[in-house]
Design brief:
With 274 residues, this protein is α+β, with helices and mostly antiparallel strands. It contains nine helices and nine strands. A five-stranded antiparallel beta sheet has the order 4-3-2-1-5. A four-stranded antiparallel beta sheet has the order 7-8-6-9.
Length: 274
């Protein structure tokens, strides 16, 4: 086909489309929807690939993709409203309201940006022991607006924006912690064997609650058996830059409460590791 004829046909088609307002609006709407679809697919593919390569967590990939999806839908809706109404004032009003919302909720948005920065960098994770400013403690939760630290003075909620503004330090050191657990058997050694299995199973199944390092294998070693009780050494590892009596006390309390709940009679105390 002659190029000049093709160009002429394309020109005539464009003139016809321009003369038909509804057809032109539908074509522009189709373009917007195609861009929306490609944006969402690219977002999911990009962040899904980052997750599969271990660069971000699955939770971070999912939340970032959902955020981009929401923004894409909002922009597509504004574009479609403008296409069909040609109401420039309405579009300006919507954009102005969005800008005003951003200004009013700026503090919230900065915290959200801080959250995504934490999740993508993966420097801080649940279980990490860290310092930020004058506060130090173990990370218990990383939420959208704040990060929860367990400190010697209690629970502290740090706004995520602080991780963008202030230097912080994450400790990778570990310390060995040992507990002496005494189980009373009332003269029944068979009952003691059952209690020992029950205690070991209890500590193993709930070690994420007792240990700062949940991946650490539970070690419960018999050290002394008498006619009244059996004595065991429970050794674990906790993450942190120093020996923290508060956290050690919490560990002792958690194990003692678990024994009471499981009807295991005995005592728990902290001892020096051999």
């Amino acid at each position: 086909m002659d190029l000049s004829i093709l160009l002429r046909d394309l020109h005539n088609a464009w003139v016809f489309i321009k003369s038909n307002r509804l057809l032109l609006d539908l074509i522009w709407t189709a373009v917007v929807l195609i861009i929306l679809y490609l944006t969402i697919k690219l977002s999911h593919k990009t962040f899904g690939g980052l997750y599969r390569r271990g660069m971000i967590t699955e939770k971070a990939a999912e939340k970032i993709s959902r955020t981009i999806d929401l923004l894409a839908y909002i922009l597509a809706l504004i574009a479609i409203v403008y296409i069909f109404t040609q109401a420039q004032q309405l579009s300006i009003l919507v954009i102005a309201l969005i800008v005003l919302g951003i200004i009013v909720s700026w503090d919230v948005l900065v915290n959200v940006v801080g959250y995504y920065t934490i999740m993508i960098s993966r420097i801080i994770e649940v279980g990490s022991y860290m310092e930020i400013g004058s506060i130090e403690g173990r990370v218990r939760e990383i939420n959208l607006l704040h990060t929860v630290l367990e400190t010697s003075s209690g629970i502290q909620r740090i706004p995520n924006k602080e991780f963008l503004r202030n230097p912080y330090k994450v400790h990778g050191e570990t310390i060995d912690v040992c507990l002496r657990i005494r189980v009373h058997h009332g003269g029944d050694l068979t009952a003691l064997a059952n209690q020992e299995k029950k205690l070991h199973s209890l500590l193993e199944s709930r070690k994420g609650e007792y240990l700062a390092m949940p991946e650490e294998k539970t070690r419960l070693t018999p050290t002394r058996i008498t006619s009244e009780y059996g004595e065991y050494l429970f050794k674990t590892r906790m993450q942190g830059p120093k020996y923290d009596p508060h956290r050690i006390g919490q560990l002792v309390k958690a194990v003692a409460n678990a024994m009471i709940t499981s009807e295991i009679k005995g005592e728990v105390e902290i001892v020096k590791c051999p």
